[in-house]
Structures are given as C-alpha cells and as structure tokens.
Specification:
The protein is of the alpha+beta class. The chain is built from 6 helices and 7 strands. The strands form 2 sheets. A 5-stranded antiparallel sheet has the order 1-5-4-3-2, with helices on both faces. A two-stranded antiparallel sheet has the order 6-7. The relative contact order is 0.11.
C-alpha cells in the first residue's frame, strides 16, 4: 500500500462504496474505487487481481465545539460535501489521505465494500498488537537493538499477548500486574496449560510460599 494526500473535492470517477460515520468524537468518510489490475501491475506483482484507491476524510466533532446535532453521518455521493459543510459549521480542520493498494482477491471474491472492510480490519491488527507492543510492552523504549535480540523480544511479546488474549484478558497491562502478584508463578503456568487448573494449594513453609499439589511433590525442608 502507498499513501498520498487526498483531494478535498470529488473525483470524476464515481465511488463504488462509501461509508459515513459520526461518533467517538469525530466525523469521517471512506470512499473506495476498485478496478481490475492492469498488465503492468500484474507483471510487477504476480497474482494481483485488483487495484484500489481508498480516500479518507475526517474532522473532530466534540460538544466543546458547539452544537453538533446538525453534524450527522450522511451517505452516498453527498457524503463529501456534507462533511465539509459540517466542518465549516464547527470550525474544525479536515484531514484527508488517500491509500492505493493491490489485492490477490478477484472482483468475484471481494467487492469494493468487502475490500474497504478488510482495510479497516487491518487497523485492528495495528491497534490490538503493534500498539500494545510499543506501549504496554515498551518495545519503542527498549534499548535492545543488537543482533537477533529485537526479533526474539518481539516474538516473546507476541506470545504473551496471544496467551493473555486466549485466556480472556482484554487488558494486558492489568493482567500482567495481576499475575505479578503471584510469587509462585503457578498462575502463569496454568495459563500456558502446563499445570492442571486448580490442582494445587499454596502452603506456607519455612522457605516461604510453596505450591503443594494434591498428589506427589513434597514441600522443601
């Protein structure tokens, strides 16, 4: 995919699918135009079936700006002019961008609407994985730079995120703090499937906390 600044005005080619949404403090529209891949595109990227252009425009929409009741999602060909009118009424700045891309999905496999949906789901990966690694797991601030260490660190973080997500923990930061209070490490082993669930008790010995399974394993002396 490549990006370029998007025009504020329309295109001579009619959009094939438009989404218009107002909520979460912003008003944004997405327009997609798709066409079969040209011979030059197919020669350079074998397997390419379609090429597409996605244009996105948005502006902030908060009650602090004034009356936002008139700034609502529209639809169809009038979405662009409606967004610009709404922005002028609120005195908001409109930001736009255009994304070009290719896909191996044919027109029969993916309509313009489906391509636009796939593109939006792509950002779910960014927000759900890479943003977590950069912030919660501190990869951006990590001093690890040499050799294969950064890749190994990223793989370990991916594993932790995956394990916590499969266990139903939506908030990785909270889950890590919660697991950190377990001095035995048994809850982490349980999440990894290396310990039967609730098949142990914690007993205080002279050496501190010690996991005492129902069968076998004696406490240290």
């Amino acid at each position: 995919m490549k990006r370029r600044p998007a025009p504020l005005t329309g295109s001579p080619f009619p959009p094939q699918h438009v989404t218009d949404q107002a909520g979460h403090g912003r008003h944004d529209i997405r327009v997609i135009r798709a066409a079969p891949a040209t011979e030059a595109i197919s020669a350079r990227w074998p397997g390419a079936e379609q090429m597409f252009l996605i244009e996105r425009c948005r502006h902030l929409r908060t009650r602090a700006m004034g009356d936002i009741s008139a700034c609502r999602a529209g639809g169809g060909q009038e979405s662009g002019p409606e967004l610009l009118t709404c922005a002028r009424q609120l005195g908001a700045k409109v930001s736009c961008e255009a994304v070009t891309g290719i896909t191996s999905l044919s027109a029969g496999q993916a309509s313009p609407a489906r391509l636009l949906t796939h593109n939006r789901h792509h950002w779910g990966i960014e927000n759900g994985l890479h943003h977590r690694r950069d912030t919660t797991y501190g990869e951006d601030a990590s001093p690890v730079r040499a050799g294969a260490a950064p890749r190994l660190l990223a793989s370990m973080n991916n594993l932790v995120i995956s394990v916590l997500s499969r266990a139903g923990h939506a908030n990785s930061a909270y889950a890590r703090r919660d697991l950190g209070w377990d001095r035995t490490g048994l809850r982490a082993l349980e999440l990894l499937g290396l310990l039967p669930k609730r098949d142990y008790v914690i007993r205080i010995t002279r050496s501190g906390l010690w996991p005492q399974p129902w069968r076998g394993m004696a406490a240290p002396r």
